[in-house]
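Target chain:
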Amino acid sequence: MSSALRQEVNPNYIGPDGTPGIVATNSNTNKTQNYKLFYFGDTRTAQVLPVDSAGEILIDAKPIYTNGVWDTTQFEGLDDSTQEVIHGKVQTGVREHTTRTNQEVPQWADSNQQGFGVATTNNQIAQSVADNEASGFNLGSFLWNHVVPPPIRWGANFVKGTVQTAQVGWQLITEGPASFVEKAGIQGGSYDVDNDSFMKRVVAYPMDISPQQDYMKIDCYSYQPPYEASMERSFGDDKGETSLGYGLSRQSPYRKRLGAGIILPMPNMVADKNETQWVDDNMSTMAMGALQHVNKTFTSKAGTLLAGAIGGTITGDMMRGINTADAFNRLTGQAAIYTAIGTKEAGRGEIGANLLSQLTGKLGYDITPETILSRAGGVVANSNTELMFSGVKLRSFGFNWRMTPRDEMEAHNIRMIIRAFKQWSAPRKLVKLNSGEQAGDTIGRAGSPSYFLGTPNVFRLRYMTGGGRTILGANKFKPCALTGISVVYTPDNTWNAYDGGQPISVTMDLQFAELEPIYNTDYSDKVQEGRAFDPSDPNSLGDLMPISIVKQDVPSSSDVGY
């Protein structure tokens, strides 16, 4: 935990009898130990930690309480009722402390949760074992005797790991995946570098580009995980739905606009390529016969068994019925299929080849029915090959510009443009939570350690014509990642520079890839809430471009779209 954000909470809130602090027996030293409550504002974590006579946290101190969860492996001498009283006092203390210091109140300490959430890691594990024993299966005994090796069973690391896992699981359950991940230091993409917004005005090359000239506009945005909202515990509650029934709900990946953008001349190569994935799919006549057999023999009893399995109410009789049905089908299913397709000579030919293949397989020879038919009769069974849709593909784009500065200011703009694309596309090195960074920092120092890497910024690309209108005759873009940048400072294969070392000319190659595929709904005027881009609003965070509805008698509506 960051010492800069460590705050001692009023000790009067801790003692079960109104006295400051807590006194218990330390399980590691077997000695009486004083404890105090501390609150770490950077992770919104409350911990009761052992302290020395001066009230300072001991080195390598292990908490006996974290956000409503007691670790009973670390102390003795506080019964369940005392733990509950202390927990209630901690909730009140943390709630008042965070309110007084203008911090967000943690969910576990909210007034609506007063008196709830107290638990011990040992109690949670014991309850899980008891639940399994009641169902006829001793999970704890099974894991202990069959999974955990004897040398590890009694090891300190195993005990500590079990406690830590229980604490993490409890936090995940009580706070939800999204909140848990954020508190773990993965801050949902909400990490910005102030220096990324260094372009307060539009930077253009050439500087005197004509307002009547077509151009390309590139804007940069900090990244927002598109599926972050779908991970919230409350997602869909207001609509009475969840993502499982309707697919995953996606939001705009644009979180905040960084700077005023970059203007460059129209690239020499303007092209797009929309692709989908199609694959060859085969189904032989015999395979179709198997499918038809399953359809015909799926009786009401089988449906009942399936429904019971899905509903989790399957009984012993049902299980025996499934086993019986399975054995029966193994014995009779193939015969039924052979009967179905063996009414014609051609069908009997395939049956014969299939039987010969099985018989030779028993002798250890792998001879397929197709090989038998081909060698014996010069034919193969019709595979009924069909091209089937299998998925989508993401588009990518490459652009190249040669930039030759005519004066010092234009050289400055070129350097800014190159620097912007390099800096904006670099992955974020997130701060190590206990590395001593200043409060509010989310980005680590240069050279500092980092457990996680944050997603780089993303881009909005637009082809524009005079007056700032979108070009109808060229493709539109969905949000893009800058996957590669290449700069050549010697495009003529020799070093040429002005005084001060500014290259006379440079070439810049940018490679972009869209974050989301193109769908048919992207050509509709009905757009999901929050995702429509408003060209008249420079700060609009919508990611879907306006697409006109084509009307044959209105030429201006002929927008090529994506």
